[in-house]
Amino acid sequence: MNFPLIASLVSILFAQLIKYPIAYLTNRKSAKLNLITSTGGMPSSHSAAVSSLTTALILEYGFNSPYVAISTVFAVIIMFDSMGVRRQSGEQGIVLDILARKHLAEIDYISDDISYDEVEDNPLILSYDIDDYERMIINRYLGHKPSEVIVGTLTGGFVAIFLRLVLL
């Protein structure tokens, strides 16, 4: 049995499944079932997966194992990326959404007000309408706050330890 793999996958599932109850308890208005399948939110399932993998490898091979070293570096990169690049991408997505909605409102959802120069610069502009735009919106939960990463890390570690106790 590949305990590190099982622990990581269970941690992802567990972290994703508890997102909705946590959102419901903390802010009922923002609690939607699609949180279970989305990225971002509390806790970070990415952090849960990599911390569970590292914890399982420590339990399986000991702290001095090269596998633990590889997993730890991998975990740190994943966690920093989720708080940095992915979070900033999500925030920029919100700003772009606001600007696009403002622009669509100003031109009355792709109207005759568009000049030939605008179409020449971006020929795709005429092929989109508001329905297409709604389908293409970036997920607002793209990245993580530090607290979401910390809770994800703790969740993954506890899941790995719990599974080790149950499976032995």
Please outline the helices and strands.
Blueprint lengths: L2 H24 L18 H17 L4 H18 L1 H22 L9 H6 L8 H7 L9 H22 L1
Helix pairs in contact: 1-2, 1-7, 2-3, 2-7, 3-4
Walk me through this protein's architecture.
The chain has 168 residues and is mainly α. 69% of the residues lie in helices and 0% in strands. It is elongated and about 60 Å long. The termini are close together. The relative contact order is 0.20. This is Divergent PAP2 family protein. The chain crosses the membrane at residues 61-80, 149-167.
Brief synopsis:
This is Divergent PAP2 family protein. With about 170 residues, the protein is an all-alpha fold. It is built from seven helices and no strands.
Give structural attributes.
single chain, 168 residues, mainly alpha, 2 domains, 69% helix, elongated
How many strands in all?
0
Strand content: under 5%
Q: In DSSP terms, counting alpha (H) and pi (I) runs of 4 or more, how many helices? A: 7
Tell me the count of domains. 2
Spans of at least 5 consecutive residues with low confidence: none
The backbone outline, from C-alpha atoms, is: elongated
Please give the radius of gyration in angstroms.
Answer: 21 Å
Order of helices and strands: HHHHHHH
The averaged pLDDT comes out at 78
Terminal residue distance: 12 Å
Largest sheet: none
